[in-house]
Each structure stands twice: as C-alpha cells, then as structure tokens.
Serum amyloid A protein
Amino acid sequence: KISISSVLSKHDHLHHSLSFPGTRDMWRAYSDMKEANWIGADKYFHARGNYDAAQRGPGGVWAAKVISDARENFQRLTGRGAEDWRADQFANEWGRSGKDPNHFRPDGLPSKY
C-alpha cells in the first residue's frame, strides 16, 4: 500500500541526495561574499550561488530555492526592508533560471570571485 507520506519521504530523500553539491555551491558563494566584503556585491553573490547550484540539475535548483527562501524569510523577520528582500529574490531567481550572474557584478570586484 502506497501512502502520501511514503511518496513524499522518497521524494525528499531524492532531493536531499541530489542537492548536496548545490548546497555546497550556495555555501561557497556565501563564504566568498563574506571574504570579499565588497560593498554592492551581495546581489552578485546571490545570483552566482543560485546559478552554480542550478547548474547541478533539479536537486541543485531545489537546494538553491530552499536555502535562498529560508535566508530571505529569516532576514525579513529580523526587520529587513521589503525593497531589499525583493531585490535579493530577483537576483536569486535570476541565477536559478540560468541567467548570467555577472549581470550583478560590481565594478572592481576581484576576478577570483
């Protein structure tokens, strides 16, 4: 007998097993953003992390969406402005959709990023 919970459990397991590389991509973008400490670069790093994760396939897209949404929802709860939240989400979706994250790259950001 197949139940909804068993199907969802198998589905979640599939996403979790396929999402590890995407999660690593998101962490690398976050770490690079902190290391660079470059004013005006946060949208670039949002887009880049989502882009890199999405290149891994459906599991990477899933990981990027879950991580981005969790981060943005947490920041909204801590009083961050709606305009900044919308701009971050736009950059997240831009990268996740496969568009070039360099669209958001600020002038002068070192090439290692």
User: Anything to note?
Assistant: The radius of gyration is 15 Å. The CA atoms of residues 56 and 82 lie 30 Å apart.
